[in-house]
């Protein structure tokens, strides 16, 4: 086997999806510890400050490096190279989070044992659904009392429409948590609370070692095996193909904080999560094992020095090998560019990349020529599809403080919009600029950057818009009629596409009923 296909096969690229406080940061840290990417617990703090106050986040963004380096974390585990992509979960939730999910091959869903399925998890799962991303589930905080496994399974299946198949099964919860039974290894994995920091636990006990199991579990042994028996009757058998299609999820139980059950979950990612998958382009499917390099940009982030306006474009390698110094073709601009200094984004530090393989993420320095959704190849005119804009959920009207700065405002808004920092809408019947976002912090970031980078002072006003839909219709006559009859709610987005800004969900539903030939789309491709 050539090095290239070996390297490709050993890549595992995934993201953790969860509702704030479910334990994503704690779990990330445990994974990095296991991968040797960090030495000390407590290192993965950088994003936390985002939760406390916007101003902290701004302060942190001034030192840009922090959030950039924690966006993609690469580490070795067993014989695999793991790329863990960060999906901000707190106040800094934005479209980036959604788009990051277009660059992964699987996702690890963290659920709080007591709280079950929560709002943000639901939204992130909707995005995973668009690409049938395989999902691995980690039920966290087992050191606390929570819902029973079957209650949780029921909730996940009902709310997220994915079948649960347990890989491990807990013996007790909260104060009486004694460990998990690993169904496939047919072993019981005991947990000793005092051992958490040492990262080691008592040796596994084989399922047929009755004396050993009794010694650790006492009478709980019978309960455990009765539960497992019952679970076997009610849960489907694990079906690898159904997992790959995103229809079934293998479920692990544990506690990120106490380092229980985390290794088993990481072992699963390493052994069974899919390696680099195929990607659809306009004309054909690109397979990772193809020799020619290709990839797409899913995120752009401002770089260290805001004064220089250089940004880092995150590119997911889809096929072939990236080698330092190589020339790659910028398809949208139809020109070649030499990449002298792409970087890889390790947990602690940025490093120059020598080589990158399918599944890897590289950071390209970008002085404005690269946009989210751009495709890079070795010459072939490909265009990767499926990197969407999502309908924003919050809207604000921009209020300019100095009218003489109108031109700079338009320039700034357009550029920040191309970068994906926000979405802009221009109503047909006014000169307003309406910004749309999926997280409220996006507005603050845009105002701050308009001021810092474009010298424009602006504030926001609330605006009666509940949601946006992109309008599409094959029939030009019907579309014209619609435009004539509904002008007050129509706007152009940053790319000139027609959008309907609905004042309420009720209005949207009524309008959709009234105009059955018009499509109202909640996502639009770049
Ligand atoms: P995030 O918001 O999803 O990144 O969640 P964090 O990792 O910051 O965790 C939120 C809170 O839950 C923190 O106070 C953690 O210490 C705590 N936490 C995380 N994992 C566990 C766990 O396994 N057990 C308990 N009891 N607390 C946990």
- The helical percent reads 25-40%
Bound heterogens, unique: guanosine-5'-diphosphate
Given the helix and strand composition, which structural class is it? Answer: alpha+beta
Question: How big is the Rg?
Answer: 25 Å
Approximate shape: globular
Number of DSSP E strands:
33
Regions with little confidence, pLDDT below 50 for 5+ residues: 45-58, 60-69
The proportion of residues in beta strands is 25-35%
What average pLDDT do the residues reach?
87
Distance between the termini: 37 Å
Largest sheet: 8 strands, antiparallel
Give the helix tally.
16
Give the strand order of the largest sheet, numbering strands 1, 2, ... along the chain.
Answer: 28-25-27-26-30-31-29-32
Labels describing this entry:
7-stranded mixed β-sheet, alpha+beta, binds guanosine-5'-diphosphate, 526 residues, single chain, globular, 8-stranded antiparallel β-sheet, 16 helices
Q: What do you see in this structure?
A:
Keywords: Cytoplasm, GTP-binding, Nucleotide-binding, Protein biosynthesis. It is found in: Cytoplasm. GO terms for molecular function: GTP binding; GTPase activity; guanosine tetraphosphate binding; translation release factor activity, codon nonspecific; translation release factor activity, codon specific. One of its GO terms (cellular component) is cytosol. This is Peptide chain release factor 3. The protein is an alpha+beta fold and 526 residues long. 29% of the residues lie in helices and 29% in strands. It is built from 16 helices and 33 strands. The strands form eight sheets. The chain has an eight-stranded antiparallel sheet. A hairpin with a 4-residue loop joins strand 8 and strand 9 (187-190). Helix 13 (406-418) crosses helix 14 (441-454). The longest helix has 15 residues, at 220-234. The two termini are 37 Å apart. The model is unreliable at 45-58 and 60-69 (pLDDT under 50). The structure holds guanosine-5'-diphosphate (GDP). Residues 18, 20-26, 89, 140-141, 143-144, 255-258 line the site of guanosine-5'-diphosphate.
